Amino acid sequence: MQANSPLIRVLTAWLLALLLAVAVGALTIFLVNSRVFGPEQQIRHYFEALKDGSGEEALGILNAPAPKANPSMLDGPALRSAAASIDNLEVGDPEASGGNRVIVPVTYTVDNVEANSSYILENTGTRWLFFDTWTFVAAPLPTMQLSVINQNTATLNGTTVAMPEGQNSFAVFYPGKYESHYTSEYFAAPAQSTVVATRQDKDRIALATRATDKLRDDVGQQVKKFLDECALQKVLQPAGCPFAFDTENRIVGNIKWNITEYPEIVIEPNDGNWIMRPLSGTALLTTTQQDLFTGQIIPLTIESHFSFTARLDVTDSNITVTPVVEY
Q1: Same domain for 170 and 58
Q2: Are residues 270 and 293 in the same domain?
Q3: Would you give the distance in Å from CA 262 to the centre of its chain?
Q4: Which residue, among 91, 202, 90, has the nearest Cα to 140 in the 3D structure?
Q5: Minimal CB count within 10 Å: which of 50, 73, 170, 177?
Q6: Distance between CA atoms of 304 and 308, rounded to whole angstroms?
């Protein structure tokens, strides 16, 4: 058979087409394997689950055992909140890590600040003969510590969480932004946040609870009422009050007390309670006295600088201020 016969040409064309089809098929398998079944795709699925607030799916993808910690941040709105600030996700090329494992670097921004994480995945076989299967190497989730002064609850990523004795530990996914605050009528702690980027992170948020203006105003009103009632007593030594006046002369005029400076209210935490700093102020006494030696009638105006302490008891619905006057 001659080399240029029609049959040879047909066979050659078929052979070339077959080789091209095999090459295209191999390339297609390679591209599908790397782009659809590669370790990078597992990373993307994981981040999608975080954004959706699907904690069960994210936990399954990450193949992570949950630590013995509060799980409030692992699902729903709290998880969506943790992932909401993550933008500009870029999954890097896998880097060999020995055996069938690779490390996949990930960069992203949190509130426009660049951050990065990395994940270890392992090739666990193939699917449908051609496509690799990749699984995250099992590792515990990180935990985040939260504390709040003198309170047994706090708000973490929009969720009210229990804070027994002002402390708690929360299991969290990474990466994620976690923000906490405490707000009530009488006490508040400004928001504090942290970004958990790796499972090795040991993040902590400490809320510094302080008295609100409402509490200081309400306490100040009670202190003012106490002092004003003391000032109504038309005697030199009002009973149970922090100010008084002693004289050897005879008082012959009306006695009048007037509070000219009320105490500044400062409320601070102390050993699980709330205490008030010592209170100080000034009272003005006006009256008329008679000198016992000369008989002269003399107007008397004198300032009495006073100080005292007070016990403070605060509940959600009631404030009690108990003055403590030492003689």
Answers
A1: no
A2: yes
A3: 36
A4: 202
A5: 177
A6: 13
